[in-house]
Amino acid sequence: MASSTTSIERRPFPWVRLLLGLAAFVLVGWGAGELWTSVVGTLESEAMRHLAEERVDTLVTMARVVTWAGSAYLLVPLAVICCLAFLRAGCPREALTVALGLGGAMLISDLVKLLTARARPAVEHLQAVTGSSFPSGHTTQAAAFWLSLALALGRVTASRRAARLAVVAALLITLVVGWSRVYLGVHYPSDVIAGFLLGGGWALYVSRLTRPPGGSGPPGR
Questions:
Q1: For 75-132, how does the pLDDT look when each residue is reduced to its tens digit (9 = 90+)?
Q2: Which are the contacts of 181, defined by CB distance < 8 A and separation ≥ 6?
Q3: 37 neighbors 118 (Cβ within 8 angstroms)
Q4: Does a structural domain hold residue 31?
Q5: Whole domain around residue 63: which residue ranges?
Q6: Crossing angle, helix 160-183 and helix 57-66, to 10 degrees?
């Protein structure tokens, strides 16, 4: 029985499924972007102009701060630190969950942006941006990283309550990041929704691929 368990634990990582999943997320994101922009037309543009006219300085300052929770400049080094911590704790699958979660989400976002090529909102941008609008890169990255981290932590903690709180915190951070991108005038609401779904969905997919054989649980199971 011990040798059988060991052989299961050492089974090769399903890289083919990972690549197929990556391609599927890109295609779905591209299709959704093309469909949405062709159907919605100018409705979101009018909403963005109205929002820009009603901006409040205090909320602008808040948006400038919280938007960093979705920036690659923060998330990449933070992901490296988390991965090293997981590896040191003897949790390589959890490290892989975080690394693939963020890295894959960044690639998905960049490819969908390139394929969709949606113009940014025609309002004053309160943050310097490049590239197209759909999906929101910050929201995609935030959803993928924070949810991947929460799911990874949930697998190594014995407290279900703590695991649930981590997921709730990840979702709240992502929602706040998404709000900041719209409030700063650099994304449409649909860009943020797409980023939330793509990043969150990718995090769940990667977490499933990296889940330990026989279920999940704290170290020493």
A1: 999 999 999 999 999 999 999 999 999 999 999 999 999 999 999 998 989 998 988 9
A2: 67, 70, 136, 138, 139, 187, 191, 192
A3: yes
A4: yes
A5: 22-209
A6: 130
